Amino acid sequence: MTAHLGYLDQAAHLSMRATGRRQLVQLGWLYSGPVDRQGLARFHRAFGRGLAGRRIERSPLPFGRHRWVAAAEPAPLQIGENPRPRAELGDWFDECSQLPIDPEHGPGWHMAAVALSDGATAVTVVASHCLLDGVAVLAEAARAAGGAAEPLRWPAPRSRSAARAVLADAAQTCRDLPDALAAVRAGWRARGGAPDGRAGAPPPSAERDQTVLVPAINVFVDAGSWDAAAARRGGNGYSLLAGLATELGRRMGRCGEGRPAELLIALSERTDTDTRANALRMATVEVDPGGVAADLTAARTAIRAAVASARAEPDGLFALLPLTPFIPRRTARRLGAALFGSRPISCSNLGELDPAVCCPDGTPADRLFLRPVDQNVRAGDIIGGGGQLVVVAGRTGATVTIGVVGYAPGGDNTRAGLAAAAAAALAEFELTGEFV
Questions:
Q1: Which CATH superfamily is domain 194-354+377-435 in?
Q2: Which Gene3D superfamilies does the UniProt record give (predicted)?
Q3: Which of 65, 152, 182, 391 is most buried when burial is the number of CB atoms within 10 A of its CB?
Q4: Range list for CATH 3.30.559.30 in the chain
Q5: What is the DSSP letter of 326?
């Protein structure tokens, strides 16, 4: 098990510290009745023994790689005693997503549950993207529900003396030098991460530092209808999601009028023994929004080619990651934005999900929610960056569950506004969904 953070994980952490913006992964579950509280407690304990049961400890060297250490105390588990109105389910998920999360000082994740006025129960887990990516949080949820995996052993916090820490991290830096030199050479060839000219007008100076809650919704679509809609257009589930993201991006002003949709697709590289927080690389796909709702063949071909290219050779920005420990704070802001969301539309299809993911209390939930949410988003950053759109989907049995997080400068940036845009985009593909 590797003690030091990978380059991408260090970049994510440095970017979070430089910008103050925290990127999170959130899972939610909805049961039609009460839950087994003992089962939730078992899930909570098991989840905290895996990748979530750690924190980031900084290197004493300004250019050193940080390392993983054990979390000093268990993450919070809050079970609400007062039922919430069913209509406030989305509000409750939002409230949980904004509770304090810090992968260095803790807590790096938390779990909560609440009863609803109609007898249903909602459950959620929220974790820092600096600890787990989307695929990892699903794998850890399945592992925790099964309860069979051995706990991961992390070094104790501050278990090294100052002298030993300096010597060990200096030696690690020396071992990393060949990677850093290769990144310098790649830097002469790679370009990216610059503004694309689509930024919105900056808000008044008094409003730039105000925080913005980026709307997040979930949509549940019948899997049979989803497959049929894809087949009628010469596509599959992956190209249909790309088409839906493109159409939604057009409605939110992120493409169209001669501009293609630029989709950023995360490709997981996670293995069963992988302890990286972010085990992925990116593929960039351009999709013409003009006819995508009628024909997905071009999108499907473009996705296949882009994925093959990304698997063969990393994105230019990723080739620069070995320089991460050496970059100044200002550059960390730009690199993090380029790696995690500066492109117009992030689109990820997680495919068929392990049924155990849906069982936080040991029994299957009725709904699984996927929510790629952020904390501490400043108005100046998101408006100046042209907004945000993230679409993620997975399949659980007979349902396709889709999470959408989106903000359009000058648009209707409420959950109702985002849901209306998503419903209209679905209608272009002859689909309807259940919205939360």
A1: Nonribosomal peptide synthetase, condensation domain (3.30.559.30)
A2: Chloramphenicol acetyltransferase-like domain
A3: 391
A4: 194-354+377-435
A5: G
Indicate the range of 191-195, 381-385, 414-418, 425-429 predicted with least confidence. Answer: 191-195
Asked if the model's pLDDT at residue 342 lies above 60, the reply is no
Residue with tokens 């989106």: 406
To 10 degrees, what angle do helices 134-146 and 37-47 make? 130
Q: Which of 194, 205, 128 has the alpha carbon at shortest distance from 383? A: 205
What CATH topology corresponds to 7-179?
Chloramphenicol Acetyltransferase (3.30.559)
Q: What is the pLDDT confidence band of residue 229, given thresholds at 50, 70 and 90? A: very high
**Structure pTM?**
0.92
Write down the pLDDT at residue 324.
Answer: 85
Contacts by residues 142-147 (CB-CB < 8 Å, ≥ 24 positions apart) = 142/354, 142/356, 142/357, 143/46, 143/50, 143/356, 144/43, 144/44, 144/46, 144/47, 144/50, 144/360, 145/43, 145/46, 145/356, 145/357, 145/359, 145/360, 145/362, 146/356, 147/42, 147/46
Residues 6+ apart with CB under 8 A from 258: none
As annotated, the residues of the chain forming the CATH 3.30.559.10 domain(s) are 7-179
- Predicted local confidence at residue 101, as pLDDT: 97
> Which tokens is 202 given?
């900056």
**Contacts for 208 with CB less than 8 Å, ≥ 6 apart:** 202, 378, 379, 380
Collapsing DSSP to helix, strand or coil, 377 comes out as strand
Q: What is the mean pLDDT of the chain?
A: 90
Amino acid at 286: E
The dihedral through the CA atoms of 135, 125, 241, 250 has a sign that is: negative
Asked if 90 contacts 217 with a C-beta cutoff of 8 angstroms, the reply is yes
Model confidence at 357: pLDDT above 60: yes
Amino acid at 34: P
Q: How would residue 180 be classed by pLDDT, with cut points 50, 70 and 90?
A: confident
Digit-coded pLDDT (tens) for 129-158: 999 999 999 999 999 998 766 789 999 999
Residue 351 confidence (pLDDT): 95
Q: Tell me the CA distances in angstroms from 153 to 48, 50, 53, 104, 337, one per residue in order.
A: 11, 8, 9, 17, 32
Q: Which tokens sit at 409?
A: 């400068």
Q: Are 331 and 119 in contact (CB under 8 A)?
A: no
Residue 259 to residues 193, 253, 300, Cα–Cα distance (Å): 18, 10, 19
Element at 399 (helix H, strand E): strand 399-407
Residue 226 half-sphere exposure toward CB, CA atoms < 13 A = 26
- State whether residue 153 is helix, strand or coil: coil
